[in-house]
Design brief:
single chain; 200 residues; mainly alpha; 8 helices
Length: 200
Amino acid sequence: SKDEYQTLRDELLQAKKNIFERPLVIAALSVAGLKFIEWKYISILPFAMAFLSLFNFWFTINRLKSAARIAAYVQVVLENQNEFKWLGWETSLRLYRKWLKTTPEISATIDRQIDKDALPDALLYYPPIYYFHIFMVLAAVIGALVIAASTTHALNATLAILTIVVAIISIKYFYKYLPDEVRMLIERSRVIWLNSMPKM
């Protein structure tokens, strides 16, 4: 289990690195696009920026959920082996998913058991990333509207509409994964591990 502990810690560090780097790469590529894309094709840039921002936000949430599962597993199983049997990550993850699928009223069950006094500050790096994604989508919408208003080309208007559609979808995800909600991910995962793992 020592090897597993180190492997999972390395995965946590890699996930955190990806979460920080990817939005910066998207922003850098968008700025670079202003220099290298011909003006007649520039309307593609805001749409691409909005789409990539939405995709990366989804990726970020996915990584944060995975990181929360790992952090909670380390706390509950690896650091508490006198209480829970160690089965290995893959087998334990199967039990985790099985408990989620077989437990009725899952959200209410987790909410009843969650320890709100223990909510971590570990995800305080999330709000800047969250607001940075909002900024990129907002900048993309403004850029698309400015370009569409400056010309009469149908492609610009079409891409502006598509950018707005992407922005609307993004708003749905931004609302669903507010910083306060994401801050609870580790404690939620902890409840699931406590219920799904066999005791000694």
